[in-house]
Amino acid sequence: MGRGVEVSTEQAPASGDGAGEPDAGPDTGLAAGPDTGLAAGPSGVGPEPPRRAGKVSASEVSRAIRDDIIRGVHPPGSRLAEEALSARYGVSRVPVREALRTLEAEGFVRSRPYAGVVVAELDDAEAEDLLEIRARLEPLGAGRAAARRTPEQLGRLKELLLLAEDALTAGRLAELARLNSRFHEVLAQASGSQTLSQLVTQLSWKIAWVYAIELPRRAEDSWREHAEIVQALEAADPERASAVVARHISQAQKAYRRRDTGPAARVEDSET
Amino acid sequence: MGRGVEVSTEQAPASGDGAGEPDAGPDTGLAAGPDTGLAAGPSGVGPEPPRRAGKVSASEVSRAIRDDIIRGVHPPGSRLAEEALSARYGVSRVPVREALRTLEAEGFVRSRPYAGVVVAELDDAEAEDLLEIRARLEPLGAGRAAARRTPEQLGRLKELLLLAEDALTAGRLAELARLNSRFHEVLAQASGSQTLSQLVTQLSWKIAWVYAIELPRRAEDSWREHAEIVQALEAADPERASAVVARHISQAQKAYRRRDTGPAARVEDSET
DNA sequence: TCGGGGTCGATTGTATGCAATCGAGGTGAG
DNA sequence: CTCACCTCGATTGCATACAATCGACCCCGA
Fold first, then answer.
1. A58 has a chain B CB within 8 A of its CB
2. How does pLDDT run across B138-156, given as a tens digit for each residue?
């Protein structure tokens, strides 16, 4: 569905604060996104009413920021200044602050008094833990869902399967990731437990984040490892070459193990 | 709108909204607590500055409301009007709203646009799910903690054990519950994983809530069941009496199964 | 008497303005 | 040249003020 006007300026958040990545891939998807997730402010024609009615903006802002974090618009470690967010999402600082509190409780950002809000780091260990947590919680939710699901929920899940199949054959990976989140979200809702549903839903967001952040990073690492291999070959150092390749394969396996990136994923893996 | 002085009235949250409990135990600890969790306003000597410095109040407010929810001051289903909270905790509505967002993300309250915020319900199934979740996550965190703990953290845990032993022998159950939460919180921090730590910490708060809410409710139910037993005896209905007693025992077992209520808790009583 | 519709009060949601606080940069002494 | 201190700009945190929305109550007609 065509969605509104869209800003173009995009305002890359980090002006060289360089906490996390060494500005590694500038192609993380920053300029790619078709929309910023909200009304995008008065960039176009006229001053138009401050905000279109119907939606309460605070929760919308929270969703928009979360989406942008997941999509890599705000990379880990980057600072989220309130006024900048204000301008970006077209609301005042108050709903922005509320959204940030939500995201803080969800673990997407960290904040310290008078020091501002920073996107949480997401190192390898964190990602590993997240996947472990999911591995332990989702079966629980699925069990509950199997017992309590409504026909509507089942139907929606089936529908998502079909959409995912389409997206998969068409190679629309971004859409696939979103469908994945949605699938787990609905599955969580179907568990019938408020607590479990909320937890698993938030978890699924984090997982989507992991995939979005970790896979490009993995690609980067992969090429760095390739470079190391070449170095070893150039140095004619058989042992080092062997070790580097072994590590490379191991890393690739690890990445693969994490792969079940879609509702249709029929993972057979043995969870080693 | 003189907001200044009074606070002592304590303002029981439900002015007849009667959603949740039938005002069951007015002694849940409402007037008992030595403090309401915050500065409690200028109830004492002079008008003194609106708030003592040092602490950022929004997060303090969130902690205070959470504590009050756990302690039963705001029972499940009760409405949390912003202005009332404002008055109670001595701040304006802005930090109150931010605190509510935090609590919403943590699952302690539910909110709908323009309908306000309500303390989440906590039925038996939810409690069961929470305990399941904890059963699955805490071992993970403990494993991580065993690998990554710092000596300071270990020391703090030992200290908590001692304090818990004291509280246990002294029979200070409320203190014991708080120590329990604290213990799990520190344990979670020791896991070294931001995600896991935050999750388990929030979970431990919820568990404390379950215990605080569920056990009194259990006591209530227990006496209701006692009454049913008496009724069955009065009616000279052996089958019904048998069934009721069987259910009663089963419930007590369930309650017992949930009981490990402290790091050192070795309570032997059989509930009822 | 009962149902439908409109008005008003109360509460939530947001914007603006001001006070509090922290880090960066400059300045002078040693 | 280094370091401590201090001033200032920028940003966060909060209080107030105003707009938007919903529920309750009342009035009216059948």
1. yes
2. 888 888 888 889 899 899 9
CB atoms within 10 A of CB A79: 17
Report d(CA A3, CA A22) in Å as an integer: 33
Biggest CA-to-CA distance, chain B: 68
Q: How far apart are CA A157 and CA B230, in angstroms?
A: 49
Range of weakest confidence among A252-256, B172-176, B243-247? A252-256
Instruction: Please report, rounded to whole angstroms, the spatial distance between the CA atom of protein residue B236 and the C1' atom of nucleotide C20.
Output: 73
Of A101, A192, A195, the CB nearest to B130: A195
What confidence score (pLDDT) does residue B245 get?
A: 80
Residue nearest to nucleotide C21 (CA to C1'): A114
* Distance (Å, whole) CA A251 – CA A254: 5
Q: Is A199 on the interface with B (CB under 8 A)?
A: yes
Predicted pLDDT at A76: 94
Q: Which nucleotide is nearest to A56 (CA to C1')?
A: C13
Stretch B106-121: mean pLDDT, rounded? 96
Q: Does the beta carbon of A101 lie under 8 angstroms from any beta carbon of chain B? A: yes
The answer, yes or no, to whether residue A3 has pLDDT greater than 70, is no
Q: pLDDT digits over B207-261, tens only?
A: 889 888 877 777 677 778 877 887 888 888 888 888 888 887 877 767 656 554 4
* DSSP 8-state code for residue A237: -
Task: Give the pairing type, strands B109-112 and B116-119.
Answer: antiparallel
Q: Looking at CA atoms only, how far is residue B2 from chain A in angstroms?
A: 25
- Which residues are CB-contacts of B174 (< 8 A; sequence separation ≥ 6)? B29
Which chain B residue is nearest to residue A196, measuring alpha carbons? B129
Backbone φ, ψ for residue A111 (5° rounding): -140, 145
The pTM is what? 0.75
CA-nearest of B245, B209, B93, B219 to A194 is B209
Q: Say whether residue A125 is in contact with chain B using an 8 A CB cutoff.
A: yes
Distance to chain A for B251, nearest Cα, Å: 21
> Is the Cβ pair A196, B133 closer than 8 Å?
yes
